[in-house]
Write a structure and sequence with these properties.
The protein has 231 residues and is of the alpha+beta class. Helix content is 22%, strand content 28%. The strands form 2 sheets. Strands 4-3-10-9-8-7 form a 6-stranded mixed sheet. It has a 4-stranded mixed sheet with strand order 1-2-5-6, with helices on one face. Mean pLDDT is 89; it is low at 1-8.
Length: 231
């Protein structure tokens, strides 16, 4: 039987790297299954919103992925990996094998990144990008303490701020890619108290920010061209 909480379940750092076949080629599939007793908030196409979730899959797909059934596809991938119940499904054309992990005060962050298509969120006249290249920064975070609904939403904002900080520090001249996704997991309260805040100056929000910042920097460091020195 799977463990009931993140405190005894598989660590995010121990997410399994499996495989799946798409367009006649095998692609990596990252699987983390903390089991029952976990609440997640996510912007993912599968399992998005707030609710009890038992697993997360981050599937690498071919560049220019054109299937019109991503939710069904992710459910099939999860089932093929032996996962049951409700979960979160992420997709990316970036390498999930090159994932990066960081931990701070019990908060763990795992980031997969591709920044071939990137830009600022508020770019004037932004629309669909033609001929997309591998992109997407997917962020998965686990905390060892329960969070209220509001704090879960706050945690997503904090993780996003930390991602942007890492990109700016690397000189990426962007706030992210058009398809970035976030998933934050925390133990279910089970009738007990839950943390009400996860902003960057709260105890757990600060730890989350540092973990996401470190993992994002590590994941994106080799993807940002080095600045050209002036002659």
């Amino acid at each position: 039987m799977l463990p009931r909480t993140l405190l005894t379940g598989p660590s995010l750092a121990d997410a399994a790297l499996l495989g799946h076949v798409e367009q006649g080629r095998e692609w990596p599939l990252l699987v983390w299954a903390p089991g029952p007793g976990v609440r997640m908030v996510s912007s993912a196409v599968l399992g998005g919103g707030i609710g009890e979730r038992q697993w997360v899959v981050n599937a690498q797909v071919p560049p220019g992925y054109a299937r019109l059934d991503p939710v069904a596809h992710l459910r099939d991938l999860a089932s093929g990996a032996g996962l049951e119940g409700e979960g979160v499904g992420l997709m990316t054309a970036a390498s999930v094998a090159d994932r990066r992990h960081a931990v701070d005060g019990g908060v763990r962050a795992l980031v997969t990144a591709g920044i071939g298509v990137r830009g600022w969120a508020a770019a004037p006249g932004a629309g669909a990008v033609a001929a997309p290249r591998p992109g997407t920064i997917n962020i998965i975070v686990s905390l060892p303490v329960p969070l209220t609904d509001a704090a879960l939403v706050n945690a997503v904002a904090t993780a996003t701020e930390a991602k942007v900080q890492a990109l700016v520090e690397l000189g990426a001249d962007a706030s992210g890619t058009p398809t970035d996704a976030v998933c934050v997991a925390a133990p279910s309260p089970w009738g007990g108290a839950a943390e009400s805040f996860a902003g960057p100056r709260s105890l757990w929000g600060a730890r989350l920010a540092r973990a996401v910042h470190a993992a994002t920097r590590a994941a994106c460091a080799e993807l940002v061209p080095a600045p050209v020195a002036p002659r």
